[in-house]
Specification:
Arc Repressor Mutant, subunit A, 702 residues, 11% strand, 17 strands, binds adenosine-5'-diphosphate, 7-stranded parallel β-sheet, binds zinc ion, single chain, Rossmann fold, alpha/beta
Length: 702
Amino acid sequence: MTSEVLHAKLKENFGFEKFRPNQETIINTILSGQDTLAIMPTGGGKSICFQLPALVLPGITIVISPLIALMKDQVDSLKTNGISACYINSSQSSEEQQFYIDNLKSNTFKLVYIAPESLSYLDVVFNELTVSLIAIDEAHCISSWGHDFRPAYTNLGYLKSRFPSTPVLALTATADKATRTDITKQLKLRNPKTFVASFDRKNLSLEVRPALDRVKQIIDFVEKKPNESGIIYCLSRKTTEELALKLQKSGVTAKAYHAGLDNKIRAKTQDEFINDDCQVVCATIAFGMGIDKSNVRWVIHYNLPKNIEGYYQEIGRAGRDGLPAETVLFESYADVIQLQKFASEGLNSDVQLAKLERMKQYADALSCRRKILLSYFGELVKENCGNCDICKNPPTFFDGTILAQKALSAISRLQESEPLAVIVDFLRGSRNAYIYEKNYQSLKTYGIGADISWYDWNQYLIQLINLGYCEIAFHQHNKILLTPFAKKVLFEGENVKLNTVVKKVIDKNEIKETKTKAAKSSLFEILRKLRYEIAQDEEVPAYVIFSDASLRQMETLRPMSDEEFLAIDGVGNAKLEKYGQEFIDAIVYYENAKKKKAKSKKEGNTYKTTLELFQSGISVKEIAVQRNLGLTTIISHLAKLYVDGNDIDLSQFVSDDEVMLLHKAQIDLEYPTALKPYFDHFDEKLSYDKIRLGLAIVERNK
Ligand code: ADP
Ligand code: ZN
């Protein structure tokens, strides 16, 4: 199919203007009848790769997916785009399942989503179906190498035997080579064409912060983002609950999510998050797998993740719509210690420890973080990314030799028997119970680093650990030991370069500003509310109606006709028809209100100018000439200015008697709004100017 035709289909049915990397070639390969293996990062746009061919091909497309919760979402999404699809899984009653199976035969559906466990239900209708494409989502579930092994996936190979001439598309975000080979083999793919998309997600900013005061840092962070959905990953169930509570106390709708909670509660939290009713979810890793929410605007890691794979998958849940999204990872030594303990006690401890070490290296990095991430996935990039904390704030070094000497000698004075916090207290000369109990205050170098803050000392010591001058004895209460390299600094004058500690200063004013800005109804907020209302009505998640990216574009381009609306990315024919008018109305209304406001502001100014000129003693005629306005206009300005209570004398224009007569006429004529009835009443003997100004005086005297 020509590129033009494919692009037209993409726009008509899904509303998108362009293909994302690899989508078009994958689609072409499938349409040519070839088996395909597509490896794309989360948010890379895998669904289009089978949804678009499904529309073009004559028969039905079977989509195998392990994520039952996601099926409804995907089917809802397709339906809002006017595409007929259904799903069959154990969440439905057997009558319901039977209903859809019966209807498959009548060829009403272009796509059917089915869980591998339920696939056998289809056996009875297979003979009657024209199956044009088989898509296997989350294909890594077939491999026991992978992290989400699903036994039901191992049977899927029979699909290829059953439909030998139907192309199979296997999709996954797992890049690892062993898994890839396993997928091909077990699905019995024939000579599959493999596509590996770049794992780079440029719209995700990357940042690592020291974990000191992290709760406060998180609250400040969230306060700056009212209405923006985010996920906070925590290591323990307890932390998710405590953190959610703290956020609630500072007015954020936050909920905890972990495997220990009742199923119903978990499902409810997930729904609320998906539907934009709950802003923040504090979750263990169990959260996020089964959701497709495209407007997650940020992801925070409260604790260091176990490995880079998990970390990348989790941050990948932010910004699927392609708009900028933020990620922040908090690094704490306590976490490293705990994770090292878990890893060394678990299965495969060598591998797990090595993976953790890579994770730690990433967090400690002093060069572009994205380069490190991508190189982990085998992608080499030349340029620095410009969207990570290191690129934005390159580290600056200083001669830290004396600092290093002070710290290392403190460790030595304390006989290499104390953990980091005590060393810092010792250096700073803290007068706490523990120091006195141990009589450390009487040691020679006690308080030698009192001029440096607690926070900074922590950071310097961590740097010294990273540089290899000292180390943490994880199995001995985390006491800090010196390494042989320490000697070089202490006795041989080796120079140590340290990295300047930059502490994020949170600007309260900035928070206030963002809050007031968000409270003011921007067009985006108005459109967001409209989207939310429609979504509630239709019982689908808000992002299924339009993505944040589409709303942002509407805000910028302000489409006010069907044609302009259709030009928005994400608006296809079905969505134009269904939602176009409502959104266009909202935009038109907003624009008119804005114009009105601008006009009244301008008018406010014109009155003011007249008033100033008049008060400075210039005659009405003169003002009219100067301002290039009609005399009547100036008179009507004066009338309004007078009614509004301004200090002007109108006696030169209209006498007290005339005012009295006008007042009487007003009653006799039963309060006409126009001036002509007065003019006629006085037999054209009282000028319009006099009538206008006289009535102003009557009005103000009331
Ligand atoms: P994945 O399954 O790879 O994580 P999805 O198929 O869910 O990704 O797509 C992620 C998001 O990107 C969805 O919101 C989808 O609508 C959007 N998307 C997919 N393809 C395009 C495209 N060509 N242009 C714009 N948005 C797209
Ligand atoms: Zn970078």
